[in-house]
Amino acid sequence: MSGQAVIQGRTVPTQTTKSIYWQGVRDGAPFILVIVPFSLLFGVVATEAGLNILETMSFSVLVIAGAAQFTALQLLGDGAPTLIALISALAVNLRMAMYSASLTPWIGEATLGQRAIAAYFTVDQSYACAITAFEQNPGWSIAQRLAYFFGVVTPICPLWYLFTFVGALVGTSIPQGLALDFALPITFLAMIGPMLRTPAHVLAALVSVVTALCFAFLPYNLGLLVAGVAGMMTGAQAELWLERRKAARQ
């Protein structure tokens, strides 16, 4: 049950940990529209690449990072060495380190166990919702912040596991003539498009595309690694330049 607090002479309702959890569930629910087809696609593509259901599910449960999973799967399917596939997947997931650093001021005082579980469930969707909610509600306690964070992942992660399993089950029954390869680049385009919100994002994406095309001759798709590094460096430098330019105008 919500109580009341007096803030700047006004009586306003306060939120309980339980209500904040359900707020997180509601904020995470729209992502179901993305998680279901994406996890289903991974299950199908993984079985088409030769993984059995146990291997496919282990991949999704242990890694729980769609972009990295698809990257590793594609490289392994192309015959790349396991080390190259692992390095490429880690490179794709470098953003998780930045997510963790950004969340530390908000949930860094939680117990080691709580932080470990939160780290496992830190994905694009949980981070985006959590950091926005934390900044808008700086008065939340650690318990309330964790409640919100785990509320967001409640409708997301279980469905990621479930529909990966469904995709793995139906994957082997899909006729070979029905190619699904086209779905992978389309999925990535759908993920990346909404993220191009600033000049730094656009410039990083442009440099990545051009670099990937220039280094397409490298074996095992190593050109993608070069493009990723070039894109990140470009984006970081662009943001630094824009911040300095903004500061100079003030």
TrEMBL record:
The molecule here is called: Inner membrane protein YgaZ
Membrane topology per the entry is: Multi-pass membrane protein
PANTHER family the UniProt entry points to: INNER MEMBRANE PROTEIN YGAZ
Record's keyword annotation contains Transmembrane helix: yes
Any Pfam family the entry gives? AzlC
- What is the organism of origin for this protein? Roseovarius tolerans
Matching InterPro entries: Brnchd-chn_aa_trnsp_permease
- Transmembrane segments annotated in the record for this chain: 28-47, 146-168, 174-193, 200-218
Q: Where in the cell is it found?
A: Cell membrane
Taken from the UniProt entry, a GO cellular component term is: plasma membrane
Q: Which family does it belong to?
A: Belongs to the AzlC family.
Sorted keywords for this record are:
Cell membrane, Membrane, Transmembrane, Transmembrane helix, Transport
Q: Name one GO biological process term.
A: L-valine transmembrane transport
